[in-house]
Design brief:
EC number: 7.6.2.1
Number of helices: 38
Radius of gyration: 36 Å
Distance between the termini: 40 Å
Mean pLDDT: 83
Main location: Golgi
Largest sheet: 9 strands, mixed
InterPro entries: ATPase_P-typ_cyto_dom_N, ATPase_P-typ_P_site, ATPase_P-typ_TM_dom_sf, ATPase_P-typ_transduc_dom_A_sf, ATPase_P-type_domA, HAD-like_sf, HAD_sf, P-type_ATPase_IV
Catalytic activity: ATP + H2O + phospholipidSide 1 = ADP + phosphate + phospholipidSide 2
Family: Belongs to the cation transport ATPase (P-type) (TC 3.A.3) family. Type IV subfamily.
Strand content: 15-25%
Shape: elongated
């Protein structure tokens, strides 16, 4: 980043919107810094920051704003800000949010709840019966264009202002409104039906009198709900009981966090041990739950049973929760509801869809305002030239209505039909099969994108892991040498069977020696491989699941120890696909995980022998610790071993000294592999007992529980023996690398927003070439307060041209204190990776980019956790993947593969924008040319407010005579699709918006004035006897001129364009026979009429053809150089 960027928070014109306010349930308290540091300049050195706290320049933002707020500010948009803030204030008062609080929930007693909690109903509708019509009309008439047409159409009810027939004004407006209302009504009915289906799903509720069926929407806090296998969990619950013998079950969370892997959830021990389900009502117990929060990865609470002596207290964590919108994958579960409706984690993390309006529509809206201004000025000039005689005010309004064709109503009709045509073309494109256009109003946005925000899992990657490398320090094994590992394993276990009771002799015993005598004893490669594979086979959270062959009830049953563990019907389930792949790999080399429950784990050796291990403790992976551990006791020998695996950054300080780990991790990361360091430590019985007592004590503490538990575990993590380093590859989606390169060359900046771990995200960023090989990566250190954020931003500012990797927590801190500075720096990065992002945070990042850069954003994802981001972006693209259809249903465009985005943007996005820009300007030209002729006519005939063309001539001009050729511009293209994909740089030009700007608009205005003047004056000069000849000559010349202008505008001819041109000309010539009300038929069939029309048309069009030829010869546009 250039050091010259002034990073001072005090700016006059910045639109600073504090996104991370208290209402957003921020994870950090605002009070962690003195409030008078609100405007700390971000230019100080570290020394200045540490020593010179008194020297901060504090300039409160309010004072700067006050200085700006004068009359000028009020007139230039301040009134809108004031009105908006008043409306926001009123809305806030009307729906003041109830403060979210922690709660005590008694099992099966909803009536004991101290407060009234929200109804458990899902509501995604935008309107209700009362608000539908006003809401849709407001969305339509908030655009100046539509409001203008409404006023003009209403004016025709006033007799003194009436210019033409009522239908010429009301029919087009009514058509536009009817189409919009029908479209909105259909969408609304679909949303209502979806909500109704979800809310009326039936669940079994446990009561004192037994089971009863209740609707999802009738579930209350405190209810005991039974959820069957493959059923959606209706509300946030604490997991009390399961039908599984292990006391645990799996749930699928793909619609909540976007991860396809199953998560293991554990039932509360006290309730799981009860003999029968009905006993839940014979105990007096309650759950204390923290207040509802956004964070889906954490939960703190306690379970208390009062009627036991002594009272039973159990700590509750995230593994005891069942969040709404997840699905039970194994067994039947019973839970007590703690949060419903708006307070559930899934709803708190969902943002509501907004009505998206394309940038092109906004630009055309601005141009119509300019045209309206011109129209009013022209009308005032006409009245002034009359000398303000008589009822001049009425004449002024008549002139405004006369010139109303400057802004044609057909503009909206043509553009809306054009959008539908682009959507149809996208869906019919055979190169991107399965693409669906769900929002037909914004196809042009695909051609204006500057930022692409993409999810990682399932979008860039397939979420399918492949084990690639095992490194033991002195020797490394790749995919081609795995058979060597297999032979070593077979050999080591074959030795073990010849000496009974020493099946782990080569595993546990040497490790004790190693611990006492240090690294003096060199182990054989075979024993080191054996230890490493055994550690990988034991240190994980994977459960083997066996589908029963009977398959009648479809239940999944865990195999018992004495069962025959057949390999055919075994599948592995875990919360991380990496772990599943590691266990699959140990199976492939001979050591198979065959059974696991909460307390034990069994492995099968190549010879078929079963090794049993007792699980003493499990330390799950967290984003803070970046490692997971397990303590097991081998049943045959009684040895206790602590195994641990984790990221190299976390493990480097835990394992004994070595000289190869860092270098090898770097090598694997450069290959795009996800690395894990595996280590172990043997424990004596006394060491373990001491640890267990301290650990259980820490787990029950109410304050700083997480810190105390971590401190106890860390006491074990010292001087561990490094066993191996593993490398797993997450396979990328097809053609991700070329697609990302294509987008980069097109000038699109790509940000990756993922809920995954920092190391994984960095890894994929490198392997997908999101970050090029020669680029540096700046990993933003974790920051928790203002001071740390300040220092880290200063460090980042000194880096040049490097990609940024930042975690969601650090991002939140930076945005609270240095929103503008952070976004300014991040936008200069070639790529940005945000990891550990919550769904809400993804949406906030999108909104932030929109506010600070004013560029168009596109979000692409495939899971339920991407919906908020997709809806917040200017253009949302959903991928139909393994994670269900939630993202693709919420998106504006749905594709089947990530690589399709290249063609969608480069070909369809580019064409849609260029075609709509040409179509919009041509329709305006068509209105301006006739208004110019009206102005010339009125000025010649003593400034009379009399229409030049009446009735059907005006309707025919805008519809049957010119509509088809003008609309055929939606088939125009400047370069072939292959060329657009070969030269993505063509796309970069579009982001500057040159196809539709005030400059191009002004050129069309000049053309319209020139042609309108020539046609009218020509007709007035050349007509001889009757006035009716003026109408015939000028109108015929006008129609032919328009058809020739369409031909001049077209860059690539399509056969339908030729048909449209000749069809329109034929329609006009055929209708002449019936238009004797307006034309003199005897005059039309004479030679003078033909030569007069021909000469006027020639003078109006020939100069433009000459100018176009010269321009293409001496200053050709970039696309014409390519096509030639």
């Amino acid at each position: 980043m250039a050091d010259s960027i002034p990073l001072n928070p005090v700016r006059k014109n910045s639109k600073r919107i504090p996104y991370y306010n208290s209402a957003r349930l921020s994870r950090y308290s605002i009070e962690d810094e003195p409030s008078n540091l609100d405007e700390m300049p971000l230019m100080m050195s570290e020394e200045g920051f540490e020593n010179d706290e008194s020297d901060y320049q504090t300039l409160p933002r309010a004072r700067v704003n006050q200085r700006q707020r004068g009359l000028g500010w009020f007139l230039c948009g301040g009134w809108r800000v004031l009105c908006g803030s008043c409306c926001d204030c009123l809305a806030h008062i009307c729906r003041r949010k109830k403060e979210l609080k922690a709660r005590t929930v008694w099992l099966g007693c909803p009536e004991k709840c101290e407060e009234k909690y929200p109804k458990n109903a899902i509501k995604n509708q935008k309107y209700n019966i009362v608000t539908f019509v006003p809401g849709v009309l407001y969305q339509q008439f908030k655009f100046f264009l539509n409001l203008y047409f409404l006023v003009v159409a209403c004016s025709q009810f006033v007799p003194s202002l009436k210019i033409g027939y009522l239908y010429t004004y009301w029919a087009p407006l009514g058509f536009v409104l009817a189409v919009t209302m029908v479209r909105e009504a259909v969408d609304e009915v679909r949303r209502y039906q979806r909500d109704k289906d979800m809310n009326s799903q039936l669940y079994s509720k446990l009561t004192v009198r037994g089971k009863i069926q209740v609707k999802s929407s009738d579930i209350q806090v405190g209810d005991l709900i039974i959820v069957e296998k493959n059923q959606r969990i209706p509300a946030d619950m604490i997991f009390l009981r399961t039908s599984e013998k292990t006391g645990a079950c799996f749930i699928r969370t793909d619609q909540l966090d976007g991860e396809t892997d199953w998560k293991l959830k554990v039932a509360v021990g006290c309730t799981q041990r009860l003999p029968a389900v009905g006993d839940l009502f014979s105990i007096r117990a309650y759950v204390y739950a923290q207040k509802p929060q956004l964070d889906i990865h954490s939960f703190e609470g306690n379970f208390t049973r009062e009627d036991a002596d002594p009272q039973i207290h159990e700590s509750l964590s995230i593994e005891n929760t069942l969040w709404a919108s997840t699905v039970v994958a194994s067994g039947t579960v019973i839970g007590v509801v703690i949060y419903t409706g708006k307070e559930t984690r899934s709803v708190l993390n969902t943002s509501f869809a907004k009505n998206k309006v394309g940038l092109l529509d906004l630009e055309l809206n601005r141009l119509t305002k300019a045209l309206f201004l011109a129209q009013v000025v022209l009308s005032i000039v006409m009245v002034a030239l009359q000398g303000f005689l008589g009822p001049w005010f009425r004449n002024l309004f008549r002139f405004v209505v006369l010139f109303s064709y400057i802004i044609p109503i057909s503009l909206r009709v043509n553009l809306d039909m054009g959008k539908s045509a682009y959507g149809w073309m996208i869906m019919k494109d055979e190169n991107i099969p399965g693409t669906v256009v769900r929002t037909s109003t914004i196809p042009e946005e695909l051609g204006r994108l500057v930022y692409l925000l993409t999810d990682k899992t399932g979008t860039l990657t397939q979420n399918e892991m492949v084990f690639k490398r095992l490194h033991l320090g002195t020797v490394s094994y790749g995919t081609d040498t795995m058979d060597e590992i297999q032979s070593h394993i077979i050999q080591s276990y074959a030795q073990g069977t010849s000496q009974p009771a020493s099946s782990a002799a080569s595993g546990s015993t040497p490790s004790r020696k190693t611990q006492t005598s240090g690294p003096k004893v060199r182990k054989s490669v075979s024993s080191r491989i054996h230890e490493a594979v055994k550690a990988i086979a034991l240190c994980h959270n994977v459960t083997p699941v066996y589908e029963s062959h009977a398959g009648v009830n479809g239940e999944t049953e865990s195999a018992e120890a004495d069962q025959d563990f057949s390999d055919d019907n075994r599948t592995y389930q875990a919360s991380s696909p990496d772990e599943v792949e590691l266990v699959r790999w140990t199976e492939s080399v001979g050591l198979t995980l065959v059974n696991r429950d909460l307390t034990s784990l069994q492995l099968k050796t190549p010879s078929g022998q079963i090794l049993s291990f007792h699980i003493l403790q499990i330390f799950p992976f967290t984003s803070e610790s970046k490692r997971m551990g397990i303590i097991v006791r081998e049943e045959s020998t009684g040895d206790i071993t602590f195994y641990m695996k984790g990221a190299d950054v976390a493990m480097a300080s835990i394992v004994q000294y070595n000289d190869w780990l860092e270098e090898e991790c770097g090598n694997m990361a450069r290959e795009g592999l996800r690395t894990l360091v595996v280590a172990k430590k043997s424990l004596s019985e006394e060491q373990y007992q001491d640890f267990e007592s301290r650990y259980n004590q820490a787990k029950l503490s109410i304050h700083d529980r997480a810190l105390k538990v971590a401190a106890v575990v860390e006491s074990l993590e010292r001087e561990m023996e490094l066993l191996c380093l593993t490398g797993v590859e997450d396979q990328l989606q097809a053609d991700v690398r070329p697609t990302l390169e294509l987008l980069r060359n097109a000038g699109i900046k790509i940000w990756m927003l993922t809920g995954d771990k920092l190391e994984t995200a960095t890894c994929i960023a490198k392997s997908s070439h999101l970050v090029s090989r020669n680029q540096d990566i700046h990993v933003f250190k974790p920051v928790s307060n203002r001071g740390e954020a300040h220092l880290e931003l200063n460090a980042f500012r000194r880096k040049h041209d490097c990609a940024l990797v930042i975690s969601g927590d650090s991002l939140e801190v930076c945005l609270r204190y240095y929103e503008h500075e952070f976004v300014e720096l991040a936008c200069q990065c070639p790529a940005v990776v945000c990891c550990r992002c919550s769904p809400t945070q993804k949406a906030q990042i999108v909104t932030l980019l929109q506010q600070h850069t004013a560029n168009r954003t596109c979000a692409i994802g495939d899971g339920g956790n991407d919906v908020s981001m997709i809806q917040a972006a200017d253009c949302g693209i959903g991928i139909e993947g393994k994670e269900g259809k939630q993202a693709s249903l919420a998106a504006d465009f749905s594709i089947t593969q990530f690589k399709h985005i290249g063609r969608l943007l480069m070909v369809h996005g580019r064409n849609s924008y260029k075609r709509s820009a040409a179509l919009g300007q041509f329709v305006m030209h068509r209105g301006m040319i006739i208004s110019t002729m009206q102005a010339v006519f009125s000025s010649v005939f003593y400034f009379a407010s009399v229409p030049l063309y009446q009735g059907f001539l005006m309707v025919g001009y805008a519809t049957i005579y010119t509509m088809f050729p003008v609309f055929s511009l939606v088939l125009d293209q400047d370069v072939k699709p292959e060329m657009a994909l070969l030269y993505p740089e063509l796309y970069k030009d579009l982001t500057k918006g040159r196809s539709l700007s005030f400059k191009t608009f002004l050129i069309w205005v000049l053309i319209s004035v020139y042609q309108g003047g020539i046609l009218m004056y020509g007709a007035l000069v050349l007509f001889e006897s009757e006035f009716v000849h003026v109408v015939a000559i000028s109108f015929t010349a006008l129609i032919i001129t328009e058809l020739l202008m369409v031909a001049l505008t077209i860059r690539t001819w399509h056969w339908l364009m030729v048909v449209a041109e000749f069809f329109s000309l034929g329609c006009y010539l055929a209708s002449l026979a019936f238009l004797n009300e307006y034309f003199d038929l005897s005059f039309i069939t004479t030679w003078p009429f033909l030569w007069k029309v021909s000469s006027i048309t020639l003078v109006s069009c020939l100069p433009l053809y000459i100018i176009k030829y010269l321009k293409r010869k001496f200053s050709p546009p970039s696309y014409s150089k390519l096509s030639s």
